Amino acid sequence: MTTNNGPAPFSTARLDALPLRVAYADEMAAVLDDPGLHTFTGGAPESAEELRARYERQTAGSPDPDELWWNWVLRIRGEDCLVGYVQATVRGSRAEIAWVIGTQRQGRWYAKEAARGLVAHLMGGRVVRTVVAHIHPDHAASAAVAASAGLVRTGEWEDGEERWVLGER
């Protein structure tokens, strides 16, 4: 599940999940350059320079030694282009996950495929026993992605988002 330098890559039927590297910032800035991607999460698209700075922080790892930051970019196999990312913040046997697919590639089931692959990757290593996602109540597409990955609504709320869980609570 991990290598000495961070999370291990994994693949799905159409996607390769590659551990985040600062070198991906330019391509990812173009993938994520749509204010609509921030409708439910807040913020705005970041420039390549801003992404490079964020990726430097993320790849350096969490300042908390009990927390792991695992981030992957998603590359479409055969097209050799990035389409988004998945991420997991791991603390003990619990992982909080998120996913984003660039607007131009949405509607092709990449998010569902990536989230299912991420959950299988995390839980297949036998370290993670609980996967959690936080979904905005009006974000039907993310709710569908979470459900397709096996997560279920808990009815619990945090910062205006519902907690979805798979595994031990």
> Which value, in Å, is the CA radius of gyration?
15 Å
Mean pLDDT: 93
Q: What is the helix/strand order?
A: EEEEHHEEEHEHEE
Sheet with the most strands: spatial strand order: 3-4-5-6-7-8-10-9
Biggest sheet details: 8 strands, mixed
Number of strands: 10
Distance between the first and last residues' Cα? 22 Å
Outline type: globular
Provide the structure class.
Answer: alpha+beta
Give the strand content. 35-45%
Helix content: 25-40%
Structure annotation, total helices: 4
The stretches of 5 or more residues where confidence is low (pLDDT under 50) are: none
Task: Give a verbal description of the structure.
It is a single chain. By secondary structure, the chain is α+β, with helices and mostly antiparallel strands. 26% of the residues lie in helices and 36% in strands. The chain has 4 helices and 10 strands. It has helices spanning 25-31, 48-60, 110-124, 140-148; strands at residues 2-3, 6-7, 10-11, 15-19, 67-76, 81-91, 94-101, 130-135, 152-158, 161-167. An 8-stranded mixed β-sheet has the order 3-4-5-6-7-8-10-9, sandwiched between helices. A two-stranded antiparallel sheet has the order 1-2. α3 links the parallel β7 (94-101) and β8. α1 (25-31) packs across α2 and α3 (110-124) packs across α4. It is globular and about 40 Å long. The two termini are 22 Å apart.
